[in-house]
Amino acid sequence: MSLFAAIVIAYLLGSVPFAFIVARQWGPGGGVDLRTAGSGNLGATNVARTSGIAAGVVVALLDMAKGAAGVILAERLDGSTAAAAAAGLAAIVGHVYPVWLRFRGGKGVATACGVFAVLAPLAAAIALAIFAAAVSLTRYVSLGSILAAVALPPLAYTMGSPPIVVEMSLAVAALIIFRHRSNVARLFAGTERRLARRAPLTH
User: Fold this and answer.
1) Is residue 196 in a domain?
2) Which of 102, 37, 191 is CA-nearest to residue 45?
């Protein structure tokens, strides 16, 4: 029962749509509905584009925190690495498919960062550095996210993470890449938005 409870609570935590809430409160003109603004994605990058960099940073930190909280809660309730990994995956799935917004959420990158900051901190730190370097060089957040996701499983394995954590990192990487499939198409087409460009408030 403790494992089941940890997974359910982690999913519900992951489902909290901080991007939607912050954009509603912080966006221009009394707030925006991210579902119809910018890219339509409920994530920190779209908040940054439509509501400002500060709002985007706040959302990224909150999304990381809810991922980490899900893992820590599972560790307290169950104590096993398997429970922590399952709860971490549940938190990420909750962010991507939130029950509160008809299962339409973000792409899971910041929440995954919070999850692996607890499960595999060194691997997560290196993946974050890869993300930051890619975004700094190209201004493509999507490219940085994809590269970090691809790098995470081998990093977790190399750093000696438990097998269940490595396996979970593979599942998370696949989910993140799947959620970025439209970004991949735009990157190849040369039409992907760069971070510095502010998106229009219409989808």
Assistant:
1) no
2) 37
Query: Tokens 């991210």 label which residue?
Result: 34
Give pTM, 2 decimals: 0.90
DSSP 1: -
What is the 3-state secondary structure of 29-63?
HHCCCHHHCCCCCCCHHHHHHHHCHHHHHHHHHHH
Average pLDDT over residues 48-64: 90
Q: How many domains are contained in the chain? A: 1
Asked if the structure places residue 60 within a domain, the reply is yes
Q: Is residue 200 part of a domain?
A: no
Question: Could you tell me if 77 and 84 are in contact, meaning their C-beta atoms sit under 8 angstroms apart?
Answer: no
What b/e string do you get for 60-94 counting C-beta neighbours within 10 Å, with b at 16 or more?
A: bebbbbbbbbbbbbbbebbebbebbbbbbbbbbbb
